[in-house]
Amino acid sequence: MALRARRTLVMIEALQLLISGVSTGAIYALAAIGFVLLWQTTGTINFAQGEFVMLPSIIMLAFVLHGGLPLWVAFAVTLVVSGLLLGVAFKVLVVQPMIRHGVLPLVIATIALGIFMREGAKEFFSNEAQPFPMPVPYVVLELGGVTVTSHHLFCLAVAVVLVLALQWFLGGTRTGRSMQAVAQNAQAAEILGIDVKRMVMLTFLVNAALVTVAAILVTPVYLAKWDNGEAIGLTAFIAAIVGGFNQVRGAVLGGVLVGVLENFSAYYISTEYRTAFPLILLILVIMFRPYGLLGRPEERTV
Amino acid sequence: MSAPLLEVRGLSKSFRGIRAVSNVHFEVAKGEVLGLIGPNGSGKSTLFNCVLGQLRPDAGEVRLNGQDVTGLDPTALSRRGIGRTFQLLQVFPALSVRDNLVLAGQEHRGTMLGRLFMSPDAGQRARADELLDLFRLARLADEPAGSLSYGQQKLLDIAMAFMAEPELVLLDEPAGGVNPTMLGDVESLLRRLNEELGATFVVIEHNMSFVMGLSHRVMVLAQGQVLATGSPDEIRADQRVIEAYLGD
Amino acid sequence: MSKTRLGVALAAAVGLWSAVAGAQDTVKFASIIELSGNGAAIGTNWRDAVDMAVEEINAAGGILGKKIEIEHLDTQSNPGTSRAVLQKALDGDPYVVLGPIFSSSTRVNMALTERAGVPQIVGSEAASITQQGHPTIFRTSFGQEMGMPKLVNYLKNEIKAKKVALIWTNDEWGKGGRNTAKDLMAKAGIEVVADVSTEVQQVDFSAEVLKVVKAGADAIFAYCLEEESARFLNELRKQGYNGPLVGETTLISQKVIDLAGANANGARGHVGLTIDAPVDLLQEFGRKFEARTGRKSDHNGIKGYIAVYLAKEATERMGKFDRDGFAKALRGAVVTTKDEPGVLMDLRIDETGDVDRESFLVEVVDGKQQVVKVLPPVGDWKK
Amino acid sequence: MGTMRWIAGGIFLALLVLLPRELKPYGIFLMSNWVLFCVVAMGLNLTLGYAGQISIAQAGFLGVGAYTTAILTTRFGWDFWLTLPVATGLSFLLGLIVGFPALRVQHHYLAFVTLGFNILIYLVFRNEDWLTGGAFGIFDIPRPGFLGVDMRDPLSFYYLCLVFAALMFAAAWWIVRSPWGRAFAALRENPVRAASLGVDIRTYTLLAFAIGSAFAGLTGAFYASLLEFIDPYPFALEYSLSFLLMVISGGSATLIGPIVGAGMVLLLPEWLRFAKDYYLLIYALLVMVLMAFCPEGMVGLWRRMVAAIGRRRARAPTERPT
After folding, report:
1. CATH number of A16-288
2. Parts of chain C belonging to CATH 3.40.50.2300
């Protein structure tokens, strides 16, 4: 009897960790998807992806605090601003001039861009963390010993809807399929009469939208601060690679897996090494399934 | 007749159930030039890559001087005396012409650690200059290989395959993309190498007059199998070969 | 061109040249402080409060007639950089060095001031700093070895906790506090039933909080940085914990209350310095600071403010600018607010450079700090 | 051109010897730091620039050497000089291990594996208190004794670092012009072709990592001694990114690129101090501009300028009307 009670307790704990992990992981997944899309279409490894999540949260908060806008209006406005800054300006001013020089200079440039965004947010907004309003009314539910908040459920719902919509868009619409075609082989797509430039721009806009959504989901828990991007960016890389660098589904799996793995390893193994476990997973995946858990092997070139 | 230099027995290779090379047998004698022809997709390059360790054959064996070398990696095969060129031009554009040659020879002698303490030219300079003269590249010796014309790079590519004094050289389309004037140079060079220095070749080529003029024997591949083997004249007259080329 | 002039010209050209010592009627203070990196928020409070003190003193005629000239150098929250910039500051021959706050930075660079014989007044709290025998180091807030016993006593005597769960930020400050607390608890017969570290910038606290909550402790002792404290509090309340919760200043500071909102209610913390203390001078400082910067000062601002006035007091007691006499003037000295209102509270400097004075036990009630108890100084010098 | 280069080198060396005599301790410290980081960047340049293997773990390797020396000198009372072979050997070994993934994956995958290794190394430094002192670090690391000179004097220690850096520069130069250097270049440009020419690309790939790592590890010993204190922070990921920046912004696959790059990364923030709080902003912007207009780094920019001047000179007579 005591054993059974213990078992139930263990189950409840595991469930608690799982739910938090999945909901945090869903947010990582959004950033990871954008990361993967950029890689697919332009070969950009965006080392500033974490800052791409941080900046919209700061902008949104600025609209709320200084502009007096309700959060959802601020979100809509920020979506536009992100599209311009993180989509159009990023593509035109950073990626376009540098991509022809190869991967490394662009890597360096995005690292510098990350510093630039961090310092900018610190200088022109605040060097301290700020609270961020919840997008939906905050309710704590207790279901059989497991605590779930309305925010958890909201994160999950948004992520699921967004990923399904994205899958449908990429697979079921003409524009989406064109985007996929460009991602797989830009030259062939061009021959097929696809407007490659437009598709690439669209990818950058989709990324901008994804990070903005990620921002409104993560910041209420994580707080708004200029250096928040570091941890999120790193986790998004790991998620993207673990899941599969050339697959949207893969990035989703990767994000959730990393979120859950962090929680479980912190609880059952070691909090001091909580960041190590996703990295070990990353190294194992790269060594034994370099194209990711759900990814396809890339074409071999001799 | 002495043992053949290269002996390939029952070699097969499939990709996802499609047989690219199927039960291929052939031999190359010392001093011989064997031409390897066949329509696109007939398995020539796959056969080459299996022999040269780029791909692992599913079945069959490859013997060099009677020794089993099946499944050895390209580095080991190179050190055992097989040189090769690739279908696409492959020189090291940032290295000088001479350095390309020295590189092609330096790993065949001495020890790994020894090479760190060797003179920079690894004792290969004389041999490199000899080949530069032979291939008429001497005046370009210190230019980066990337600055050479296509034909000159092709020559350099072939010269690199010969640098380590290999027993056997496999050339994958040595005439591909070379302009007609240069083509004669390439052909006469290869013939000289064969006749004067006794070099042994296997040559994949699409240019029929080139390969027929150079080879002692020609082997025809179609759909992964050996269709015919014989002297250039016999092959020219073989009805099956003509059909294979015109067929599909 | 002579060798020297060539060198000077080149050095100037490469930008390595430190400014030549200032004019005769000024005295140079160097402040080595966290202005970027993850200590930027606390360092900024320090800087602004130090500037405020310097302006006040200069407006009132300076120290012994000399105006203070202050330069702030950024440690980038990095110990290596803090050492480099302190070296740079020492090249300019300052009278006294203020800062830094991060203990790791102080521990790296204090050897330099010791070698140069320059007094250093730091904002760090790690116990080890005043135990290295540095002859001219001082601090203006409690070190962990002064603050922690007060807290452990409180856990033992007031809360009557037998089992305590510890949660701490995994950096040198958090780990140092945890080590000190663990030792003291062992001596006090309190069992540590959970010992959980957290990362700076950690996103999800659910695993850590679950560990702490499920440990079956009588009380939770939290020793996290302010942002981590806020994230921790949010998750803790989410998981429904309402038992006793104690910590240091960083658990219940105004910043944490701003970030965690109602979730901070009920948390108790030991506070050495707070602008909400029932002390007129502290409250007045808080108002002046807010008027000047638009922000509320945390304890780090108060530390910096007192540091400047402490240097002034030491100098005026000597009647001259004398680095060697500085330590003699302060060590073992009691400084009351009657002597120097700028120290804000009566205090005593002990023989190692540590400070002793009253402190407060504060509880967050309805989003406000409320002083529950005034804790007397460790020593009995007051009466 | 050849003599010009020797003269320029001589002037540069003379500056390195004479300039610090005029500097205050902070300037000397900065220069010591710079010459040491030059060696770390040279090592990464061998791995990344010459052999084409992306590595984002250089700061971790530096840390392995620094901790080895720190632990052996403070805990076991070893002489500084005796710790050098151990520091070098350990970092060499670790470089081999980190290099193994490069046999399977390349490009961005390799970047992320090595990045992961760096964070793991950092976590070990920070968490294993019993070995590394954890977040508290290790204090009172001695300066080496050398011919009875007091190395606590910043200038003397700077000269020791300078001699060390000069020797390492010579070693890098030797490796690059030896047959190994040629094999590294082949590995970078076309590993498949190289293998077909008998170049053992597996061994060379591992060597490229191990040598680059050993350069960093050996430097770590001097770095620990320079700071006299180490904690985990200077060996975190962001410093590996800094070393990457040094190599790329200076000019990869050139001998002086890392020297220029290390100078830029260390000294540029010093020059920008006038900008106060904005210096990192300006710094980041400058890096982006450099990458956009001159991805071959400063050495590439210099070469382009020289070439442009050469062209103008060659063209000048024809342009002038007669």
Report:
1. 1.10.3470
2. 12-142+278-352, 145-271+361-375
With beta carbons less than 8 A apart as the criterion, state whether D219 and D40 touch. yes
Q: Does C18 touch chain D (CB under 8 A)?
A: yes
Average pLDDT over every residue of C333-354 = 92
Percent of chain B with pLDDT over 70: 98
> Is pLDDT at C276 greater than 90 in this prediction?
no
Does chain B reach chain C with at least 3 CB pairs under 8 Å? no
Distance from CA of D72 to the nearest CA of A (A): 25
Q: Which amino acid is at B215?
A: S
D187, D205 Cβ separation under 8 angstroms: yes
What order do you get walking across the sheet with C347-349 strand by strand? C334-335, C347-349, C355-356
Give the pLDDT band of residue B60 (cuts 50, 70, 90): very high
Chain C neighbors of D135, CB-CB under 8 A:
104, 170-172, 175
Residue C319 backbone zone (phi > 0: left; psi -120 to 50: alpha; other: beta): left
How far is A302 from chain B, CA to nearest CA, in Å?
A: 9
Single pTM value for the model: 0.91
Residue C143: what are its φ and ψ, rounded to 5°?
Answer: -75, 165
The pLDDT of residue A280 is: 94
Residue A229: closest CA among chain C residues belongs to which residue?
C201
Nearest to D280 among A47, A94, A119 (CB): A119
C259 vs A contacts (CB less than 8 Å):
129-131, 223
Residue to substitute from D281, D293, D296, interface A, most A β-carbons within 10 A: D281
Q: Are B121 and B102 in contact (CB under 8 A)?
A: yes
CA-nearest of D122, D159, D173 to D23 is D159
With 80 as the cut, is the pLDDT of residue C301 above it?
yes
Element (H, E) at D81: helix D80-99
Interface test with D, best of C8, C14, C173 (most D CBs within 10 A): C14
Place of tokens 């950024």: C74
CATH of C145-271+361-375, one of 1.10.10.10, 3.40.50.2300, 3.40.50.300, 3.50.30.50: 3.40.50.2300
Report the candidate in C78, C90, C82 with the shortest Cα–Cα distance to residue C115: C90
Partner-chain contact D186 B103, CB within 8 Å: yes
Q: How far is CA D137 from CA C78, D58, D216, in A?
A: 13, 20, 19
Between B and D, how many residue pairs show a Cβ–Cβ distance under 8 A? 85
Does the CB of A275 have a partner CB in chain C at under 8 Å?
yes
Per domain, the residue ranges of chain A are 16-288
State the nearest Cα–Cα gap between D288 and chain A, in angstroms.
Answer: 5
Chain D nearest CA to C69, separation (Å)? 17
Is B36 strand, coil or helix?
A: strand
| Confidence (pLDDT) at A142 | 86
Q: Give the residue, C298 or B170, on which the prediction is more confident.
A: B170
* Whole-Å CA distances, B43 to B18, B170, B203, B225, B235: 11, 15, 14, 8, 18
State residue A297's pLDDT score. Answer: 63
Structure confidence at residue D319 (pLDDT): 45
pLDDT band at C173 (very low <50, low <70, confident <90, very high): confident
Identify the closest residue of chain A to B90 by CA–CA distance.
A302
| Cα D74 to Cα A29: distance, rounded to the nearest angstrom | 46
* pLDDT mean for each 10 residues of chain A (302 residues): 78 92 94 90 89 97 94 96 96 88 86 93 88 93 88 94 92 88 84 88 95 96 92 92 81 94 95 94 88 64 31
Domain boundaries C12-142+278-352, CATH class: alpha beta
CA angle D110/D111/D116 to nearest 5° reads: 95
Q: D156 vs B1, which has greater pLDDT? A: D156
